[in-house]
């Protein structure tokens, strides 16, 4: 995958009714997908999930989601920088209607099991402060393997204060194996969807962040993308990180992950050249600007 194929600017994957559509076929892989739905006041969209399980995650706005005879009301939020949000889970082989106003992300994964539609409350989202110093960030683990049950789908939100680096040290999860040093790696496809504080999707002059992806001699890939609100970066394999927030502008990204493993996992392995960075966090305070949103628990 080339740098051009990996970086998908807002507006380049539009297909009605989706403002953004990344299917496994579009990405050139097998499992992970993402759609973004933009609804005007009183907007209504009906669609089928097919062979994918999905979430409805408000990025900005509120909605009511109808699925399998259930009506799930999402209070949502004003923006990704304003609050942790509630969300809805949609099973495969379902017909869904979304009514509301705003912008909504629909992370997805090819699924085998058909689970029940469910509501995820904002108050139940585990919020983690990860890293320290200029590598401090906030992780909203709303659909991590430990927090919310799915068949294959994993999704989390990351908020990086302006000037900080996240997704750091660079790490990869491209094959299922245990390394000689005991670290476990899982095969996962990953999507990064970005928003930048002070900007809006589709604004060519808006504030920017940066995303790095690089490979190994065996599987080369080279990406250094300047990202704006609504942009996507695909990570089929290789080390990814850092995600860089420009000074003065907080950076948000939604991570969507899925793979063939029998158990949902976010297991990864750091680039061994930079793994030492984790040990340096013990002597540094967490960025005092965190948490940017929501309740939190302190975790390493």
**Helix vs. strand class:** mainly beta
**CATH architectural name:** Sandwich
Please state roughly what percent of the residues sit in beta strands, choosing from under 5%, 5-15%, 15-25%, 25-35%, 35-45% or over 45%.
over 45%
Low-confidence stretches: none
Helix residue percentage: under 10%
- Give me the CATH fold name: Jelly Rolls
> Biggest sheet, in brief?
8 strands, mixed
Span of the ends, CA to CA: 33 Å
Count of helical regions: 3
- Categorize the overall geometry: globular
**How is the largest sheet built, in terms of strand order?**
1-19-16-21-11-10-9-23
CATH homologous superfamily grouping: Jelly Rolls
How many distinct beta strands? 23
Rounded average pLDDT:
95
Whole-number total of structural domains? 1
What is the string of helix and strand elements?
Answer: HEEHEEEEEEEEEEEEEEEEEEEEHE
Q: What's the gyration radius in Å?
A: 18 Å
CATH class: Mainly Beta
GO molecular function: 5-deoxy-D-glucuronate isomerase activity
InterPro entries: Deoxy-glucuronate_isom_IolB (IPR024203), KduI/IolB_isomerase (IPR021120), RmlC-like_jellyroll (IPR014710), RmlC_Cupin_sf (IPR011051)
Protein name: 5-deoxy-glucuronate isomerase
Pfam family, one: KduI
């Amino acid at each position: 995958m080339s740098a051009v194929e990996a970086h998908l600017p807002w507006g380049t994957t539009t297909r009605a009714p989706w403002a953004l559509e990344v299917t496994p076929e579009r990405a050139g892989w097998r499992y992970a997908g993402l759609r973004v739905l933009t609804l005007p006041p009183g907007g209504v969209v009906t669609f089928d999930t097919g062979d994918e399980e999905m979430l409805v995650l408000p990025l900005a706005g509120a909605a009511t989601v109808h699925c399998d005879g259930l009506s799930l009301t999402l209070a949502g939020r004003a923006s990704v920088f304003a609050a942790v949000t509630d969300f809805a889970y949609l099973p495969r082989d379902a017909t869904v209607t979304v009514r509301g106003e705003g912008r909504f992300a629909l992370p997805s994964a090819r699924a085998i099991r058909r689970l029940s539609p469910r509501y995820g409350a904002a108050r139940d989202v585990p919020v983690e402060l990860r890293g320290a110093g200029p590598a401090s960030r906030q992780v909203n683990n709303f659909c991590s393997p430990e927090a919310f049950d799915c068949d294959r789908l994993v999704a989390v939100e990351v908020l990086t204060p302006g000037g900080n680096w996240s997704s750091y040290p660079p790490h990869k999860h491209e094959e299922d194996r245990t390394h000689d040093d005991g670290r476990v790696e899982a095969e996962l496809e990953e999507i990064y969807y970005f928003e930048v504080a002070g900007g809006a999707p589709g604004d060519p002059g808006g504030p920017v962040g940066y995303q790095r992806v690089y490979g190994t001699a065996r599987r080369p890939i080279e990406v250094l993308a300047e990202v704006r609100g609504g942009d996507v970066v695909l990570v089929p394999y290789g080390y990814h990180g850092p995600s860089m927030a420009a000074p003065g502008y907080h950076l948000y990204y939604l991570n969507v992950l899925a793979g063939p493993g029998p158990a949902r996992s976010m297991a990864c392995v750091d680039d061994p050249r930079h793994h030492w960075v984790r040990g340096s966090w013990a002597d540094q305070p967490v960025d005092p600007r965190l948490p940017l949103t929501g309740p939190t628990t302190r975790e390493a």
